[in-house]
Each structure stands twice: as C-alpha cells, then as structure tokens.
Hints:
By secondary structure, this protein is α+β, with helices and mostly antiparallel strands. The protein is 32% helix and 14% strand. The protein is elongated. 18% of the residues are buried.
Amino acid sequence: MAHVVTPLDQPSNYxxxxxxxxxxxxxxxxxxxxxxxxxxxxxxxxxxxxYELFTKCTSPEDGGGIKRxxxxxxxxxxxPCGFCFVEYYTHSEALASMRYVSGTKLDERIIRCDLDxxxxxxxxxxxxxSGGQVRDEHxxxxxxxxxxxxxxxxxLEIERRREMxxxxxxxxxGPGAVAGGGGEWKQTEAPPxxxxxxxxxxxxxxxxxxxxxxRTRMDDQDGERM
Length: 226
C-alpha cells in the first residue's frame, strides 16, 4: 500500500522560477527546510487566522512553534494577494503541516502547502504585471475571494468602457447631433395680445365722435318731452 498511495508529506514539483539552484541542490535544501509556501488564500484571510490553523501542527514542548508568518502582498497596493510563507522552528513541523493542513479549507477555500527553499526579502510581493500573483493575471473566472475577475479581464473591461464613452462623446459633438436641452432650438415667443401697445387718440378721432355725441343728446331730450 505504501507504494500505491503518494505520501502527503512529500513536496511537489514546484520550483521557484527565480531560484538559482539546480534540481539536486533544491532537493537537498527542501529535505531540511522549515518554511512552507501557502497558496490559494483568500485576499481577506488574516495573519491571525493563518496562525491559528498552522499552530495545530506545532510541538512547543520540543522547542518548536511558528517562528514568523510573511503575508504575500500586492506590489503596488501593499494589500494581501493570496499567499504567504509560514516559518517553523523545525523541519518536522513543516512536514506535519503539509500532511494535515494542505488540502483543507480556510475561509471556504482549499489551500495548498508546499515546502519552500526559504524566504528572502522581496519574495513577499506579487510578480504579476498588475502587482498581484501571475495566476490572477490570466484568470478568466470570477473569484470573489481573489478580487473578482482576473487582472487581464479587468483591463479589457476598462478599455471597452472607455471606447464606449469616447463613441458616445463623438456622437454628441458630431454633425447631426441633437442639441441637448432644446435651448438652441427655441423660438422667440410672440408677445400676447394684451401686451401690444395701443395707439393714442388723435384730434381727428374726437372730431368724428362729436356728431354722434350731439345726436345722442337730441334723442334724450325728445324722450323727456314725450
């Protein structure tokens, strides 16, 4: 059975792309490494959560325990980007974490652990073009625990929206565009009839009315006589 089941405390074929050591030297370093690389973390997982989980494999009575935890950070924003390094005091504790913690869930995500050659300053930052991990650059799925869409998909969406805004702006300013608000198309309203100026009365108007006034007085006198 030991030849059929792969041991859970054996490191994978993962190799740091920036490590300047050959395979033989790498195997020698991993055989005594006390550092774990932990991947597939949520961006929202805290250092306290990681400490609580990985202390389950420590042996303080033998002088062991967690030496330190280095959170992986986005190179630009300095925020967590989904990985970390856990350094133990002993190699056996690192192997125990690979056996019992790797493949379990943390923040509803299956995390993976692997022996690491050892942490060096600068490795805490993501190596992707956008500042995060390379795996999140080309990811096409939506992962709410790792910032939503992949960085490349987000850039494409931003470019698409910018093109739409430019097209809309050109349509508004181009020939045949409809004037906004209708302000340029309003015609001057004609003044109402009551606002028109009336012509002043002239002496000729009064002269025309004089015979009518005299005739009206004569009719009144005849009515009184009757």
